[in-house]
Amino acid sequence: MANTPEVSVGPPGELGLRPVSVGGRRVGKAGSLKELRKILDRAGVEPGHEIHWLGGDHTVWPDVAWVRRTICFFMVVGLLATACPLFRIGMSDSGDALTYAGRIAGLTILVVALVEVSAAGAAIDYWTKRRWRYSGVVVLVGVVISFLCSVLLLLLQIGERFTGYTVVGIALCVWSSVALFGLLKAGAWKGLRVPRKIAIGLLISTLLATANLAYSQVYVPFVTTPLIQSGAEFKESNMEKGSGRAYVTVHLFVKNAGQVPVYVLGSIYWVHGVPANNKFDRLPASGRPAPKPPAPDLIFDGEFVSPVGRVLNPGEEVAQDAVIEIDGAVPHKYEAVRARTEVYVIRKDRMKMTVDYERSRKTKRELKKDCQPGDPADAEYRYRTPISNSSEVLNVTRGPQRITLWKVGVGGRNPHVIVDVSPPNRRITYDPLHPIANEETAERYGLTQVRGSTAETPYAELLEKASATEKGATSPSPSPSPSTPSPTPSPTPSSTPFLPPLRPQPQAR
Fold first, then answer.
1. How far apart are CA 174 and CA 236, in angstroms?
2. Which of 172, 192, 212 is the last residue of a domain?
3. CA–CA dist 116, 146 (Å, integer)
4. Is residue 110 domain-resident?
5. d(C-alpha 53, C-alpha 18), whole Å
6. 70 with 93: CB under 8 angstroms?
C-alpha cells in the first residue's frame, strides 16, 4: 500500500474547475465527476481509489460548462471578426498606399491583426484550462484594440455615407464594450506583473517615437501645399500679304514650383479683344451714371496641356505655343488683346486614378445620347474616371468616388471648365452660379483651380509688328502645337498656392 498514490481534488478556481493531483503532481482540472473520472483513468488510477476532497466534497461542482464554452465562442468570433478587416486593410496599404506614412500604417495594422489572432488563441486557453499565465492579459489587449478600432471607424464615418463597414463598426463596438466589462470584472489583467519603471520607460519611448514619426511622415507632407504657376505671353506676330489677317503666337505654360506632385485634369486659355469705345473715355454728364466699359470679344479658346491627366512632378514645366488668327482689316477694332490661362489640378498623394482618364473623353454628340439629370446642357466634351483614396482605410470609410470634368460654353458662349468629385451614385446638379457644388469633397483631395497671369498687348502695336513681317504664303488655320517642355525661360508668372476651389468668372462677349 506504500506505493499507492495519493489522489486529491482541490477547491474550485475562478472558472469553477477543481484541480486534480495524483501523488503530488497536478494532472488536470475537472468541472464534474465525469471529467474527474476521465482524468484519473488517464493517470492510471483505478475506480474506487480513495480521494481527498479539499474545499468541498464530491457534490461541489460550480462550473457550468456550456456557459463557459458559449462565452469562449463569442470571444473568439469577435476577435477574429476584428482581425479580418484589419488584415485586408493592412495588406492593401502596406504595398499600395500612396505615401510612406500610409505604408508604415499598413504594416502597423498587419501587426495589430496578428495580435487579434493571438488573442483569439489565448481566449480558448483562458476559458478552458488556463495553462498560460498571461492568456487573460492577451485577451484583454485584443478586446481593447477591437473597441478602439470600432470607435475610430465610426468616427471616420461621420459625415460619410452609410456602408457595410458602418454595421461592422457598430456590432464590434457593442461586442467589445460588453467583453471589456466582463474581462475587467473577472480581473483578467491580474496575470501581468511588470515592474513600474520598465512600463513607464516603454510607454515614454513609444510615445516619443510615435510623435516623431507622425510629425515627419504624416503632418509635414499633409500641410505642404502645392505651388502651381501658369501664364501666357505674346510672342511674334505676322500678317498674310493682301488679306489683312494677322497671326499671333501666344506662349502658354504651367509649372509645378512646389514640392507636391499633381495630376493636370484639364486646362483652358482665352484670347480676348478689348473693343475701342470713345464714349467710355468721355466724362459722364452731371447726374448721369458713368458708361459701362465695353465687354471684351472672345477671339479664341482651347486646351494647352496634353495629354490630360498627366502627372506634373515638382520642378516640371509644360509649355505650348498657339497660333491665333486675328482680323486686322479694321485697325481700330480693338484697343488691346488679352490672353489668360486656367488649369485644374489635383494632388497625386491623396488619390489615384483607376482607369485611363485621357481615353474617357466623350464628345458633344456622345453626351447627347448619354445625357443624365444634372449634366450641363451645353457641354462640348467630358472626361470621367473612378478614383481610389490614398489608403484603404479611406476607401473603406468614404466609399467609391470619381472625377468628372466638363468643358461648357459651346459656340463661344462663356467657355469654361467644370470639375467635380462625387460618389458615382450621387448626381451633382450643374449650377452656372456655383460650378463646384461639393467644395468640401474637392478640398479633401486637393482639387485646385489655378488662375494664370494675364498677358495684354496694345492692338495697334501688335498690327504694326505684324505688318513689318508680312507673309508671302497663306498661313495655316490656328491650331495648337503639341505640348513640349519649354527650353526657354518663362515670364514672371503668378504663383497660385493650394487654395479651396474657386468659381470661374464668366467672360461676356
1. 73
2. 192
3. 8
4. yes
5. 10
6. no
Q: Spell out the residues 6+ positions from residue 321 whose beta carbon is closer than 8 angstroms to its own.
A: 235, 249, 250, 251, 252, 480, 481
Same domain, 46 and 82: no
Burial 229-248 (b: 16+ CB within 10 A, else e): bbbbbbeebbbbeeeebbbb
| Cα 419 versus chain centre, distance | 17
Residues 187 and 312 in one domain: no
Measure Cα distances from 117 to 80, 103, 131 in Å: 6, 21, 18
Q: Is residue 507 part of a domain?
A: no
- Burial class from Cβ neighbours inside 10 Å (0-12, 13-18, 19+) for residue 111 reads exposed
Q: How high is the pLDDT of residue 219?
A: 62
With helix as H, strand as E and coil as C, how does 435-477 read?
CCCCHHHHHHHCCEEEECECEEEEHHHHHHHHHHCEECCCCCC
Which range of residues forms the domain containing residue 264? 224-281+289-497
Looking at the structure, tell me whether residues 401 and 355 fall in a common domain: yes
Whether residue 74 contacts residue 68, with contact meaning beta carbons closer than 8 Å, is answered with no
The percentage of residues in the chain with a pLDDT greater than 70, rounded to a whole number, is: 75
**Cβ–Cβ under 8 Å, residues 366 and 348:** no
User: Which residue from 266, 234, 204 is spatially nearest to 447, judged by alpha carbons?
Assistant: 266
Q: Which residues touch 472 (CB under 8 Å, ≥6 apart)? A: 241
Predicted local distance difference test score (pLDDT) of residue 497: 41
Q: How confident is the model over 64-86, as a mean pLDDT?
A: 88
Question: What is the per-residue pLDDT across 47-59, written as a single tens digit (0 to 9) for each?
Answer: 878 888 887 777 7
